[in-house]
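[Solved] Which block belongs to which protein?

Original post:
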Amino acid sequence: ARFLKIAEEGATFRSYVDGKTIALTPERSIEMQRANNSDIMMVLDQCVASTCSHEVAYEAMMRTYRWAARSLAARGDSPQALFGIVQGACFQDLRRTSAEQITSLPFDGYALGGLAVGEEKHEREDTTEFAAALLPRDKPRYLMGVGTPIDLLEAVARGVDMFDCILPTSLGTQGVGYTAR
């Protein structure tokens, strides 16, 4: 993270594998996902801590919108699904604006980003419920980065259809599994 630089062009960071500098633009991100033949591609977005200031969240939300439009243009004629990402930390006004912006573009589904990155559980649940209600019901609604069984159930109850998270896989590699107890 200390090597991460975010600019209008994209994100620049160092590889944790070999230390090489990597420049990731919205266009390059889509190019890579197309090459991987991803079933669902995600736009490049700027995720900030959910506890950041309104100003920081606003700037990231606006950049995410501009990057989403660039990602959509880079998609070309690919039949792969492409999801837009709603940002805005835990600020309802920003989530509303972001949802309006992102749903104005012809994405195949919509993701809620910028959650599970520092906020309290009740803040994540409240924000999820608020933001999911702003998304079209006829398209998939996807919550990024949430993976415990109870968090999945809470998100479904709040209108979310899809999830991903590194937690179950990470815990599984350590011999940990979820049970009823």
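(Second protein starts here: sequence line, then its structure tokens.)
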Amino acid sequence: SVAQAKVVELEKSTAKELDENIGTLEVDWVNNFRHESNIGNWSADVMREFGQTDIAFLNSGTLRNNLHAGDITVRDIWEIFPFNNHFATFHVNGKRLRDMIAWQAAGKGEFMQISGIRYKYNSAKPFGEQVLSIEVDGKPVDESRMYSIITNNYVGGHLNDFFGIPEKEIELTALQKIDHDLFVEAIRKQKRVSSYVEGRILDVAKR
């Protein structure tokens, strides 16, 4: 039938687009649901640059696949980011940012991959005493300063789960960009991609 022929034709054209080689991955990308990962660092950096924010937070559970070094196709990126999430930005002061990191350090919310921020903590200590230091852009957090943050709409809709923030207290600005589209564009631009675990998040109890 005409309809069936159309479906076959569509599948072929989509397959061709999905299998397009968009760049080269120089080191294996390996996700980690409980620690900083190189794929998490790369993704969060791309988000932060796109949003022009101080900080990016990306939930590790959004990253659904690892990827071996070699050619990167559109399909690879769609398989890593299959949820069609878009991005959102919001602002918090330094005091609230400290509370968010305390929540993360205690393992109360799904582990976040980060950009623009670094923190050290001691998981052996009780809640509220775990965070040892937090830096944004290389400087200690200023409690009175406002910080801009980018994340995806899923995290933005569940700030209480991820960071212990009442959602009604935060105003989100939606950015109309699908996550896998942004990451495909970033790879096309960078052409050769390498990223590493670099100690953005350190648990001194596990050294």
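Accepted answer:
You had them paired correctly. Confirming on the second one: The longest strand covers residues 86-93.
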